[in-house]
């Protein structure tokens, strides 16, 4: 894996308080190809990310997580990426887990590795229910059994990204990725991850969950959003 060119893609919107520490920790672990995609922030996220050592790509307006991640992945491919790691900018994901993803990808000869959040007392109830509901819907409707369909911590080969590249611009991207993994019959693995819940209100809302559920059906029927 050392010979592989690994790119870390971090989308963010108004994350000036935490994105700097996330990037610095990743760099301290030895990963240098870090792409922060500023999705139309009104704060100093871009400046802080750049000062911390990331390459920064900026959306003029907020387009949504799906659009931001795709911008980062497309750029990584142009830079010759072999492996792409997706993670959040708000400090919920542990950068130390990146090596675990890479190890799993190599040892299991997987096309993509999904992180699934360990359910404990720190996970907000609404999030627990939402994750269970969407994951169950994905299993029933799409026939793909993944413990945590909405976790943003994922790792894939560059060839996998080319096959599963999504159309969704919002949080539905995670579900569309999974639908495309099933469509192309790609090999996937999962690893447990610890998540730090810093802001209960952040992430997928109830309305996002309803939209995601509707799109899961659309992905099954039409193959895309």
Can you describe what's shown?
Strand 2, helix 2 and strand 3 form a beta-alpha-beta unit. The protein has a seven-stranded mixed beta sheet, sandwiched between helices. The chain is an alpha/beta fold. It is built from eight helices and seven strands, in the order E-H-E-H-E-H-E-H-E-H-E-H-H-E-H.
CATH superfamily: Spore Coat Polysaccharide Biosynthesis Protein SpsA, Chain A
Give the name of the CATH architecture.
Alpha-Beta Complex
**Anisotropy-based shape:** globular
Q: Helix share of residues?
A: 40-55%
Q: Note the run of SSEs as H and E.
A: EHEHEHEHEHEHHEH
The radius of gyration over CA amounts to: 16 Å
How many distinct beta strands? 7
Explain the layout of strands and helices:
Elements lengths: L5 E7 L6 H10 L5 E6 L5 H8 L2 E5 L5 H14 L4 E4 L11 H10 L4 E6 L7 H18 L11 E4 H7 L8 H11 L4 E6 L12 H17 L3
Parallel strand pairs: 1-2, 1-4, 2-3, 5-7
Antiparallel strand pairs: 4-6, 5-6
